[in-house]
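Researcher: Going back to the complex we discussed earlier. I've cleaned up the inputs and rechecked each line, so this should be the final set. Can you rerun the prediction on the complete assembly and write out the structure?
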Amino acid sequence: MRSLPAKALERLSAELGAPLERPASSEHGDFATNAALQLAPQRKRPPREIAEELVQKAESLELVERAEIAGPGFVNLWLGSAWYLDALREILDAGASYGGGFADPAERVQVEMVSANPTGPITVASARNGAYGDSVARVLAHAGHTVEREYYYNDAGAQMEKFRASVEAVARGEEPPEDGYRGAYVAELAATGGDPVPRMLEQIEASLERFRIHFDSWALQSELAERLPELLPRLDTYEKDGAVWAKSSEYGDDDDRVIIRSPEQGGTPTYRAADIVYLVDKLERGFDRAIYVLGADHHGTRQWYAAVARMLGYDPERVEVLLYQLVHLVSGGQQTKISKRRGDVVFLDDFEDEIGVDAARWYLVNRGPDQAIDIDVDLAAEKTQKNPVYYVQYAHARIAGILRNAPSVPETFEVPAELAPEEKELIKRLVEFPGVVEEAVERRGPQALPNYAIRVADDFHRFYHEHRVLESEAQDFRLALVRATQIVIALNLELVGVEAPERM
RNA sequence: GGCCCCGUAGCUCAGUGGAUAGAGCAACGGACUUCGAAUCCGUGUGCGGAGGUUCGAUCCCUCCCGGGGCCA
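Model: Rerun complete. Updated structure for the full complex:
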């Protein structure tokens, strides 16, 4: 059962002594509980008997209008106006902090994301990483955690050498190496001369800022790798064939891993060596929790990081690896393999030019991380008109319009004795928000937020269509309701990284 | 061969133990002298298959079929 921890509901639930959920159909009450069904086996009593007791308890409560048993032992509740008033006041009082601040204990959390090597502009594939990771970060922050975002990259490895060589070759008027990088951006970098890497990084940062992802810090693999020698004694290692191996299989990984290559291979540390140093660095910097956001092709590294944490005596719970499935590009019904080296990728900037930042971010977090995404390049622009993000934004803009025309949102207001169905539905919807946020935090999956936002907009539009706000008898109450709706929509959009416009 | 993810409406997807499984898109038909029609209302014989656990399974477990991915 989905928890619904809005305080107005929590109080009611506590008074009743049973968890409440919102039934699928309003015929089953404003809220319902299946507690009797769940308690029946352990109490060895018929569920309807327990349900009968709950009904009597419920009917003795002030906020409950009536209660009844249904089906095998559900208890359905109908609430009076006073409860709706409480709920509305709670949202207005909380304002921008509504549905948040529940983290206990509040932690210092690092979310490391994107982390693409600067061999080219940010692609749509990395954009999913960013959209997902940043939304998780936003949700964690709303919950009350202190969150920092970090970008990790390698400026020294073989790929980087190939990238530099490609730019240099083009600068000399030659073809890039066989397996080098090509594409318009390589030519542009070649034209200006100098080390292309810092300029590539600047461009990446600009793309991501435009995508509304701000990085607090940037970590360099080459700098971290230098600190390996001081850490080596703490590791459980052995030598084989001249290479140094981490005995990671003893700590939960599938295999042991080479961390320093054999002399014949150059005797250099592998990227896994840098992984180790980086992990220690994160935890020693004071983060209670280090979250890695990685594409599903890295699923093997989940066990690796946990093994490293154990080997070094850290609680592996402090290290989380969030995986998301990859983005496929479809063009003319054909799936294309993307390759940055071939230069046939879709860059984030181009994607944004086509469909806009709002639609792009919405689209990329809308689907759960476990779902592979197909992006039809040809239809990307057309998707703009069809994207529900505009439906939700329109509701927000419409509310802003009403509030512009209103004298002011009243400090105090009375609730009508009899609420209209649309008013009740809307308030009940708004009360769900804290539960949606909490679930997003627990699952490390913000995909429910866009879907919930559509429901809110839906309920609002229906309410709007049926009832006047201004110059109605219940104007004060309805202004409060509309303002509360705006708070929830704005918060919801912000957690996804989408703007809440005053006008459209 | 081992591991990870996914099979839900024509299409893209929500739904991680509850009652009659939902939305967007697409299609058709209605609603603007009124706070924004980028809106609202109506129209839908779908959970890949077989077992199991449970009062109750799209959801949990096992096996099979199909798609994607990683490692070897």
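Model: Worth noting: Residues 337-343 of chain A have pLDDT under 50 and may be disordered.
Researcher: Good, that matches what I expected from the previous run.
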